[in-house]
Fold:
Amino acid sequence: MASNALFAEIAALSGDPARASMLHALMDGRALTAGELARVAGITPQTASGHLVRMTAVGLLSVEKQGRHRYHRLAAPSVAHMLESIMQVATELEPDRKRFTVGPRDAALRTARTCYDHFAGRLGVALADALVAHGHVELTSEAGILTQTGIEFLRGAGVDIEPMLAQRTKRSGRVLCRPCLDWSERRLHLGGAVGAAICSHSMAVGWTRRLDGTRAVLVTPKGDRIFRETFGATFASSP
Amino acid sequence: MASNALFAEIAALSGDPARASMLHALMDGRALTAGELARVAGITPQTASGHLVRMTAVGLLSVEKQGRHRYHRLAAPSVAHMLESIMQVATELEPDRKRFTVGPRDAALRTARTCYDHFAGRLGVALADALVAHGHVELTSEAGILTQTGIEFLRGAGVDIEPMLAQRTKRSGRVLCRPCLDWSERRLHLGGAVGAAICSHSMAVGWTRRLDGTRAVLVTPKGDRIFRETFGATFASSP
DNA sequence: GAAATGCTACGGCGACGACCGAAGCATTCG
DNA sequence: CGAATGCTTCGGTCGTCGCCGTAGCATTTC
Structure:
């Protein structure tokens, strides 16, 4: 197989601490500037620029020029999925040293955050649990499906699922979706197209909004009511 | 998040050409000796030993001592899944230079091989296609499910699916499974517990057997008949 | 017991690459 | 038009790591 070199290059690009920090910061699906990424990684802009050029050249990142800024984002969902899977291995191999350092910022991240294109943290897990409990979704570590009642439920909640219905399998009338292991909660939550649809709709109608410049997500009072009353999800904003 | 260092270390370990070769060779789920892995990677045993110690220390590999040999294998399915996901990114980013160099060995690999614990290559794709065509499996790039008729079909074919039935979701009576993108065929095939069950059963009853010391798989005449007549899979042993 | 095999620890060499300072291009603002 | 901002390119330094040769330990074989 000739692609061994490319495989190694991709893994090596992900394997430098500074680049890993940048990729991690990009995992919420937003586009960040080179300066922001440099700050996240704790390196100078020159060094960050070099890293970004390399990752873009290989195709891990895509760049969009806007004024004097250059916005970088993950080039494809498969890249996000790869980072997830590496993170999952890291989570499994993590020794028992206390799991994650606790800080104010981390607290917000654990409460609710985005994971590339869907919700994670306690919010993501709570929503997934609620959907499973009501029979709207079935979920295992290998795969998930949105049931017929789930399709109707989401449609009723205003979440646009038409694109997903187009790709659903003929016989089932159900939409397959992807499970995603949350690294802070160590629980499954809802990824894939279904999770993305819920997340983007929540942002669009103001159930949630992004917090400053991080992956953290704020649940608005309106969203809190919807999630509790309509979705039936119970989660506390503080652990 | 404190696990950034571990994330980077895991990716870096996968990112060296020699180590990548070894991990790749281990992706069929078998356990190989340090010497075999050294030969695969094209390095001396001393160097390979160093690599293996490091990967084992972190937890990517597990070792089993047997006489004067030390057998190394991937430590967990999540590691195989991670390697798959990196390979998928590599496949997507591969420039148009002709896909894979053709050689006698490669031809056998493209016909039928194992992918950690299930079938890949034309055999894997053909089996997945046939199961989908008969309504036994539904498959998208995000997830897959084994339908009720699929459960009965596999049971009738003698494939042990009891362990999977134990983890199936209550309401559906269906077993979720994992899709896996084949890097040579660029098509989905059947991974996860369902794919593993089919593969191990095929090996056990002699429908297939491993070819010398590689990932390549030979379909026996008996297996060829079963796959064609019972599964309804059509695939040619030469492209 | 001695030789052979498989693997691992040690030491040194060589190269790749991560990093920053200085300098140069684009873009925006006053 | 200058000044400021954001980013990139270039040169040079330094640390890390992949590699092998030698040597040493375990296990098997004769």
